[in-house]
Specification:
single chain, eight-stranded mixed beta sheet, 25 strands, Cathepsin D, subunit A, domain 1, globular, Peptidase_aspartic_dom_sf, about 375 residues
């Protein structure tokens, strides 16, 4: 479990029964406390007695036959994942009322500033429905795009738009703050896709009813200050990486540092990014460890490029798959990523679900699943 608190600039992390935070064993949780003075006022229903509301998060991929179906000493893997570049999850939202309600899947976006959807025509259609507003109130900033450049191709037609949860004044999160809903705290839990109809789906929860427990640890959020400006993105401070819980000496804290002059680099959390992306210098060290460990166990590295991935294997029978741990600024806080979230099957290949990035590090959706 991870709780982010923007008022106190902290992230609380925890795992029942230990000091390790497991993205793979616990829901990923963000609790964001934002002041309302930069929001946009709008007309809204009062909050529920519990102080919030939920939206379902649905998976766009399938993990039938995945690593998670075996026991803890996993030596085989057969996961299937959406093609590279696909958004792994979408937030299901209803637009309209009564019989005119339509449901859309929007991307969960912690980086972008606008909430919008592609629709033809817009819902509600401005030419056919009178716009009604309460006197003295302004409509929230939800826009409809009749044409988009690149979005449909990039998301393979899976999503109808984006739901912004950044700290920017125009984001959906900030608008909730301005309208007095749920104290602008939100949490989300991601469940990988399943093939059977009764599979659990994740949720996006707005509200103050966020669980806490004794094993929580905390780290800092980096929103303001030199190199960050007034960033609306959720930066964290990574200081190192452990492989099978052993620290990698070749991965240095400086690799994750944000450049104060160019405002590039750093590490962010974003479930809208399908795979975790490691800054190149750190990735090269991690890849070498993964490749050496797999080779030692008899796995054979593929010489055929697999689109979207950097390290793949064509033979992996009887291999015990490794884990990764992101060491955060505070010594006691670690983000543990279990083996079954680190590898995916792509046709006849097994690929490492972490890829290099030339600029920064992003903790992506594939490594945030339950």
């Amino acid at each position: 479990m991870v709780i982010m608190d923007t008022d106190h600039h902290g992230v609380a992390c925890g795992r029942s029964g230990g000091r390790w935070l497991g993205f793979g064993s616990l829901c990923f949780l963000l609790a964001l406390l934002n002041s309302a003075n930069h929001g946009v006022a709008g007309n809204a229903a009062p909050p529920t007695p519990s102080g919030g509301f939920s939206l379902p998060i649905v998976s766009n991929h399938d993990t039938a036959g995945g690593l998670g179906q075996f026991d803890a000493n996993l030596t085989s893997i057969g996961p299937h994942i959406a093609p590279v570049g696909w958004p792994l999850y979408g937030v299901l939202v209803g637009v309209g009322s009564g019989q005119t309600r339509h449901f859309y899947k929007l991307g969960l976006d912690l980086v972008g500033d606008l909430t919008w959807m592609q629709c033809q025509p817009c819902v509600p259609e401005p030419r056919r429905r009178r716009r009604r507003t309460q006197q003295g109130r302004r409509q929230p900033h939800l826009r409809c795009a009749h044409t988009t450049d690149g979005f449909v191709g990039l998301n393979h037609g899976v999503l109808a738009g984006a739901l912004s949860l950044s700290r920017h004044p125009t984001s959906f999160l900030r608008q909730l703050t301005a309208r007095g809903l749920a104290d602008s705290r939100f949490s989300y839990c991601l469940f990988p896709g399943q093939s059977h109809p009764g599979a659990r789906h994740g949720f996006l929860r707005f509200g103050r009813d966020i669980p806490r427990h004794e094993h929580m640890r905390s780290t800092s959020l980096l929103f303001t200050g030199p190199g960050y400006g007034q960033s609306s993105t959720y930066y964290i401070r990574i200081v190192g990486i452990s492989f099978n819980r052993k620290k990698l000496n070749g991965v240095k804290m400086a690799m994750f540092r944000r450049d104060l002059q160019t405002r590039r680099g750093g590490s962010v959390v974003d479930p809208g990014t399908p795979l975790t992306r490691l800054v190149r210098a750190a990735y090269d060290v991690v890849e070498a460890e993964v490749a050496a460990d797999m080779h030692k166990q008899g796995a054979r590295r593929s010489t055929v490029p697999v689109q979207g991935y950097h390290l793949c294997f064509v033979s992996w029978d009887h291999v015990r798959f490794p884990s990764l741990t992101f060491d955060l600024h505070e010594e006691a806080t670690r983000l543990f990523i279990k083996p079954e979230l680190l590898f995916v099957r792509v046709n006849q290949h097994l690929c490492f679900a972490v890829v290099p990035d030339e600029e920064m590090t992003v903790l992506g959706a594939a490594q945030q699943g339950f």
